[in-house]
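>> received
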Amino acid sequence: MVIDAHGNVASVHRKLMPTYEERLVWAAGDGHGLIVHPVGGFTLGTLNCYENWLPLARAALHAQGEDLHVAIWPGNVRNTQALTPVLAMEGRSYVLSASALLSRAEVPAGHPMLERCPERLADGGSCIAAPDGSWLVPPSTGEALLTATLDPAEVRRARQNFDPSGHYSRPDVTRLTVDRTRQGVAQFMD
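>> returned
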């Protein structure tokens, strides 16, 4: 869910594909939420968890001018450390990976799997990468408020030699089709 500066819901995105045991509860989402939003001098896009590994989902955001990507993760450095700089270099955009922390002590007493849980179930990994893939804030494994100054001019500089959806794209050779209609169990035509 993207909430604007006035507290209004700007868009809602359903995760395209549930991961692992999420499939026991949730169905596949749709492309309705594959949209970007203006935020200050940036164009914000976001994906959830393993969606960040989907090249075509990322390409859909790149094609809309995304230059500030928020990658949301359940919380493990292994998910953000290698991928965050790659996403930044691929899109020539800033990438903020936001991850959770979860310790065994935070699992409710009496949970049937508590004895099997490691001391740290989620070790964080929140970080910020610049459009060239360098770290502005490397992955964190503790509670912290991560801040960095982001300059839209850095995106333009990085895209001068490679813009994946601009001068370096070849829509005459390859192009992506995105269906953003909300999916449902029935479609009525009168």
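>> The mean pLDDT is 93.
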